[in-house]
Automatic annotation (TrEMBL):
Keyword list, A-Z: Kinase, Transferase
Name used for this protein in its record: Cytidylate kinase
GO molecular function: kinase activity
Length: 203
C-alpha cells in the first residue's frame, strides 16, 4: 500500500498515476467515493460534499460523541452524518489494504493505515509559485484564482485531517515515510524515488 497526501497543485495525483503505471497496481482517489457509496448505499454526492472537508461548524460538537471506527446501519441515527461517511471510506481503505496492492491519494489514508505494516506513506508538496503555475496550466485560471483555490483546498484538507486524526497536523513530516518537493525533484523522479523506496522498505 502506498498513500499519498499532497498540497493542492503539487502534482500528487499525477505522481500517483505514474506510480500506478510503474508498479502495475491501481491508484485510487475519486474511486474511493464511488466504492464507499456502493458499499453503504449512501448517495455518492454525499461523499463528494465531504471529500477532505468538513461541512459546517456543527460537526465539532454534535457528532463528536460518535466513534470514528464503527460503520452504522441505514436504520441507525447518524447514518448520513459526516463521521459515518468518513467511517465508510475508512473501512473501504482498510479492506483494500488487506486484499490488494494499490495507491491511495488523500482521504487520511496514512493515518487510517498507521498500524498496518504493509504501508508506505508519502507527502508531496511544492512552493506556491510552482503550484500556481501547475494549476493555471491545467485549469486555465488567473493567478489570483489559482492562489484562492490553493488556500481554500489546503485549509479544508488541514482541518479535515486534524479532525479525523485526533488533532494531528497534515503537513507534519513525521506522519510520513517520505516528504518530496516536486519543484526540486520533478514529478517523474518523485514517482521513481517512491518506487525505489518501496523496494528498499519491503526487501
Amino acid at each position: 500500500m502506498i498513500t499519498i497526501a499532497r498540497g493542492f497543485g503539487s502534482g500528487g495525483k499525477e505522481i500517483g498515476m505514474m506510480l500506478s503505471e510503474m508498479l502495475n497496481i491501481p491508484c485510487y482517489e475519486r474511486q474511493i467515493l464511488t466504492m464507499a457509496s456502493d458499499f453503504s448505499g449512501i448517495e455518492e454526492s454525499v461523499f463528494v460534499e465531504t471529500d477532505e472537508k468538513l461541512r459546517g461548524k456543527y460537526i465539532a460538537n454534535a457528532l463528536r460523541k460518535m466513534p470514528l471506527s464503527n460503520v452504522l446501519e441505514p436504520w441507525e441515527k447518524g447514518f448520513m452524518s459526516d463521521i459515518n461517511v468518513f467511517n465508510v471510506q475508512a473501512e473501504i481503505i482498510r479492506s483494500l489494504a488487506r486484499t490488494q496492492s494499490c495507491i491511495i491519494v488523500g482521504k487520511c489514508a496514512d493515518d487510517i493505515l498507521k498500524d498496518y505494516q504493509n504501508v508506505v506513506s508519502v507527502y508531496i508538496e511544492a512552493p506556491r509559485r510552482f503550484c500556481v503555475n501547475n494549476i493555471r496550466s491545467k485549469l486555465h485560471v488567473s493567478v489570483e484564482r489559482a492562489n484562492q483555490m490553493i488556500s481554500s483546498t489546503d485549509r479544508n484538507r488541514a482541518k479535515y485531517y486534524s479532525y479525523y486524526t485526533g488533532g494531528k497536523e497534515w503537513t507534519n513530516p513525521v506522519n510520513y515515510d517520505l516528504v518530496l518537493n516536486t519543484e526540486r525533484v520533478g514529478k517523474q523522479r518523485c514517482a521513481q524515488m517512491i518506487a525505489q523506496y518501496v523496494k528498499l522498505k519491503f526487501a
